[in-house]
Amino acid sequence: MTHTDSAPPEIRQDIDPALRIDGLTVSYGGASVLFSVDFEAPVGSMSVIVGPNGAGKSTLIKAVLGIVPRISGDIKLFGLPLSANRHRVAYVPQRASIDWDFPACVADVVAMGLYQELGLLRRYTADHRERVREALDRVGLQDFAQRQIGQLSGGQQQRVFVARALVQNADLYILDEPFAAVDAATERTLAAVLQRLVLNGKTVLCVHHELSTAADYFSHAMLLNVRCIAYGAIQDVFTPEALQETYGARLSVEQLDRIRHSLAGRASPS
Amino acid sequence: MDGIDFLQLSLPPIVIAVLAGVACALPGNFLLLRRQSLIGDAVSHVVLPGVVGAYVLTGAMNTMPMLAGAAVAAVIAVILIELIRRLGKIEPGAAMGVVFTTLFAAGVLWLELSHTSNVHLDVEHVLYGNLESLIWLDAESWRSLADPAALAFLPGQLTRLLYVLAIIVVFLVLGWRALVLGTFDPDFAAGIGARPGLFNILLLIVVALAAVAAFEAVGAVIVVAMFICPPAAARLMTNNLRLQVWLSALIAGIAAVSGYVLASWGPLWLGWPHSVSAAGMIAVMGGVQLALAFAFGRHRQRPTP
Amino acid sequence: MNEFTSNLLSALTLRAGFNSALVCIGAALLGIAAGSVGTYALLRRRSLASDAAGHATLPGLVIVFILLSWLSGDARWVPALMLGAACSAAVGLASVQLIHSRSRLPEDAAIGIVLSVFFGVGIVLMTVAQNLQTGQQAGLAAYLLGSAASMLRNEAQLIAAAAFLLSLVIYALRRPLNLVCFDPDYARVQGLSVQRMDLALNILLLTVVVISLKVVGLVLSVALTIIPAVAARFWTDNTRHMVTVAATLGGAGGYIGAALSSSTENLPTGAVITLTLFSIFLASLLLAPARGVLATLLRHLSFRRRVHRRQGLLALYRGEPIYDGLTLKLLRKAAWIRRDGVATPAGAIAAQRAARDEQLWTLLRKRHSSNKLARQYHQLVPIRHVLSEDALHELERELQARASEDQGQEEDHGRH
Q1: Of the partner residues C51, C104, C234, the one whose CB lies closest to the CB of residue B97
Q2: How many CA atoms lie within 13 A of C202 on its CB side?
Q3: Could you read off the pLDDT tens digit of each residue along chain C, which spans 416 residues?
Q4: Which residues touch C215 (CB under 8 Å, ≥6 apart)?
Q5: Beta-carbon separation of A67 and B187 below 8 A
Q6: Secondary structure element (H or E) that encloses residue C42, with its range
Q7: Residues of B in contact with A93 (CB under 8 A)
Q8: Which chains touch A (3 or more CB pairs under 8 A)?
Q9: Cβ atoms of residues C316 and C342 within 8 Å
Q10: Among partner residues C308, C379, C413, which is closest to A242 by beta-carbon distance?
Q11: Could you tell me which residues of chain B have a Cβ less than 8 Å from any Cβ in chain A?
Q12: Are B30 and B227 in contact (CB under 8 A)?
């Protein structure tokens, strides 16, 4: 999929990156899950983190958001620590980690995204209800507001999670494997949603589950396997040597070809 | 039996049982959804050393020390459970099993060694409570319900339960959003600043308070029935969380009243001149309502996409 | 020496009378059986099912008690009581299964429901029994928390014999049980029915619980199956070893606990044995070399220092500024940087070595990808500990060759 209905927005180099990680190390027991990871996601970029299973991708996201503790490392969001800028980042966790047999409907879950504004005690007004409805519209679930979440398909569940993030009006969106095990229609819809965000100056960072399709969607990338192998613009990062080093020489010829193909499609203007 | 007998001997235990049932059912809803039902079991066992400690240290069965002792015991237990879980990579159920059996055994031994058997706190009552003895002999007539002098002699368990129930209701009302969020999606909750870790601990403390307030009435094991059965029955009947919580309170109340009535007068109706354990009967009635919900509840199966 | 201590010593050395000796041995055998079965239950993640089984024995016990006193006046015939207990515990375990599989309730809720509701039924029946005025209800109360002191000789003999037989059965079944617990998928492939072994495990758990009723009581019977198994976990990861360690710890705890309980009066045996087992567990938790607290803490601190040292040296090599407090402290302590943050000569050498190590590792991993290597890499093991001298030299030569190749190409694709 190559989109070029308009020129991609300029990546600003002069302002603080949306996310900057320096020397992040996380460990459980006596072994690192992440070691000395550096990374920058420029404002307005659509970045991806890829790596083999066990590379620490989800852990990286969780460490950035303060959900897991770290041994060392400095993390800045738009130049400030997380505690100062938490309201500017929206997180979409892996949907497999949830028990979907929970007594809530779709609108309830999306409304959870309003927690930072509502806190514990403020009233949930018609205005908030409207924002929830609008977020559901954007992901194509406008008729599902009252549906029980246990009755949703995988793709619909993913859309609900993205709607919950959209309702936060954040500047940085972090998604953990948003396209894993979803139907093609959902993948298209969500990809379009993310691209719209980037066109409007927001920053998107995803963990992606499948290497071959990463170059289709993302402009910047990090190759991660406990250590950061490389990061930067995707054409510069997705070299055969770097990919082999990340995946330990387990890539097939077809995969490498596919990547080369999408990189070429991206490089040439339409 | 005439009205005064009922007022003095039956009304207080019934009210206590209802309060205890509701106080346990309310937080029990969240334990059920978090798959932490057995924490209710663990906590109801670990509060025993807390209660004995409070009695031994203060020399009397007063509300504040008991509740404080229970809260402290619960927090210590949770820390130990986490320690065991992380260090040994043990599954949470087994870690709980180690801690709650040990703390309960410690409580039993402390109890025996400190000779508190004369204060309604002997080992058997720890297991199944003392509901029938929570009477109000200072009630002279129905007007005593409005007489502060007589009300001052209501059993201490009743006032404790009122305090605890008030705390629980306030906690649920104020903390509802964070509790629901932390139960459904703890990672997202942490990311958005909803402090799931803090609310975990608060929920636990609330559970400990309910356990200790109820356990004088029904004992450590039947408290578990109060934590689990009404919310489980309500869960099988609805998909709306608010409705589930209200229903669980209602079911708990029904179990308490019907349990007490059947235990005290059921055998008489069947021609046998003795009553049976009210606490046990309350657990049975909770189980009966659950069985009905299991057989006929509208939402007893997992939904399908 | 006071009375308690002398009582205890004679109980421990089996000189406090035949009854007491029998109880100690029986409790030891019970501990061995419970420890082994408990390990299998722990590995299959079914530890708390024995809690449900324990509490579910009460209705059956009381019903048999009532029947016996009605029929014959002697309500202490242990085999019948045990049979009644076993039947209602079996119904309990089956109910757990039923509730969990036929509704949206999770398994932990099912266990809690059976545990408390069956116990409630049992309590109601107990009050019925109390009012039958057979004068023997004290016998029933002993089953709640255990009472070695009130055990008759034939009861003690029965328990010891049953525990011994059970241990034999477990030993006979050890191979299929080991297999199913260690790797159920492989077991299935080998033609072993996992379902049948789970059923066998349930039956074994049930049997342990029923035998232990008079010794530790039904409320604490779960302690016998869980505590030794969890303690064994801190000593080893190997399934077979775990079973042996758990059996040993359980046997020791049972023996010592029973001896302690019979040298004092009026202390419920269940509580004493539980606390004895816990002490053994605590010692394992703190001191075991594999996973004990002390060992883990030391490893963690040492690893943290290695991480910071390595990161510091790499930063020195690349000429990057260092801000982290712990890193600076460690580097200064090793005399690798001066107070103003500039590298000392020794530090420059160490930094070069660290960078070299990184490069060699990178090269090695390009050529061989194995899990073992990956683990050592992430644990910051220096490469000279992993390769032989010759292999190391060859790797260094290759690194040299590549370096001179790359010298021509300045462009570094996105690396730092």
Answers
A1: C51
A2: 20
A3: 677 777 777 777 777 777 788 888 989 999 999 999 999 999 888 889 889 999 999 999 999 988 888 887 666 788 888 999 999 999 999 999 999 989 999 999 999 999 999 999 999 998 888 887 666 666 777 888 887 777 778 888 888 899 999 999 999 988 888 888 877 888 888 777 788 888 889 999 999 999 998 888 888 899 999 999 999 988 988 888 899 999 999 999 999 998 888 877 767 888 999 999 999 999 998 888 877 888 888 888 888 888 888 888 888 888 888 888 888 888 888 888 888 878 888 888 888 888 888 888 877 777 766 667 777 777 778 887 877 888 888 888 888 887 777 776 655 555 54
A4: C23, C26, C27, C30, C146, C148, C151, C159, C254, C258, C269, C270, C273
A5: yes
A6: helix C18-43
A7: 185, 187-188, 191
A8: B, C
A9: no
A10: C413
A11: 33, 35, 174-178, 180-181, 183-185, 187-194, 235, 238-241, 244, 302-305
A12: no
Hey, what domains does chain C have and what are their CATH numbers? 3-288 (1.10.3470.10), 295-415 (no CATH)
Taking alpha carbons only, the member of A251, A9, C145, C150 closest to residue B128 is: C145
Q: Which of A172, A146, A169 is nearest to A160 (CA)?
A: A146
Domains and CATH numbers, chain B: 3-137+155-296 (1.10.3470.10)
Token readout for C369 is 């990808």
Report d(CA C33, CA C347) in Å as an integer: 59
Cα angle, residue B58 at apex, residues B65 and B75 outer, rounded to 5°:
35
Q: Residue C42: how many CB atoms within 10 A of its CB?
A: 25
HEC per residue, chain A? CCCCCCCCCCCCCCCCCCEEEEEEEEEECCEEEEEEEEEEECCCCEEEEECCCCCCHHHHHHHHCCCCCCCEEEEEECCECHHHHHHHEEEECCHHHCCCCCCCEHHHHHHHHHHHHHCCCCCCCHHHHHHHHHHHHHCCCHHHCCCEHHHCCHHHHHHHHHHHHHCCCCCEEEEECCCCCCCHHHHHHHHHHHHHHHHCCCEEEEECCCHHHHHHHCCEEEEEECEEEEEEEHHHHCCHHHHHHHHCCCCCHHHHHHHHHHHHHHHCCC
In chain A, residues with a C-beta closer than 8 Å to the C-beta of C377 are: 226
Q: How far is B286 from chain C (nearest CA, A)?
A: 8
Q: Which of B42, B194, A30 is nearest to C299 (CA)?
A: A30
User: Is C235 in CB contact (< 8 Å) with chain B?
Assistant: no
d(CA C49, CA C69) in angstroms, rounded, equals: 31
Contact B181 A97 (CB under 8 A): no
Closest partner residue to B175 (CB to CB) among A120, A148, A152 is A120
Facing residue for B185 by CB, picked from A62, A93, A118: A93
Give dist(CA B97, CA C222) in Å, integer.
7
| Tokens encoding B45 | 């066992």
Which chains sit next to C, with 3 or more Cβ pairs under 8 A?
A: A, B
Question: Which subunits have 3 or more CB–CB pairs within 8 Å of chain B?
Answer: A, C
Q: What ipTM score was computed for the predicted complex, to two decimals?
A: 0.92
Q: Please indicate whether, in this complex, the C-beta atoms of A30 and C415 are within 8 angstroms of each other.
A: no
Q: Decide if C247 contacts C35 (C-beta within 8 A).
A: yes
From A25, A237, A249, residue closest to C307, measured CB to CB = A25
Q: Which two tokens mark C350?
A: 């160490």
pTM: 0.84
> Alpha helix (H) ranges present in chain B?
3-5, 11-33, 37-58, 63-88, 92-113, 123-128, 148-151, 156-184, 186-191, 196-235, 241-269, 278-296
What count of residues does chain C have? 416
Residue A151's identity, in one-letter code, is Q
Measured torsion, CA atoms of residues C50, C52, C55, C56, in degrees rounded to the nearest 10: -110
State whether A151 and B305 contact (CB < 8 Å). Answer: yes
**Nearest chain A Cα distance for residue B32, angstroms:** 11
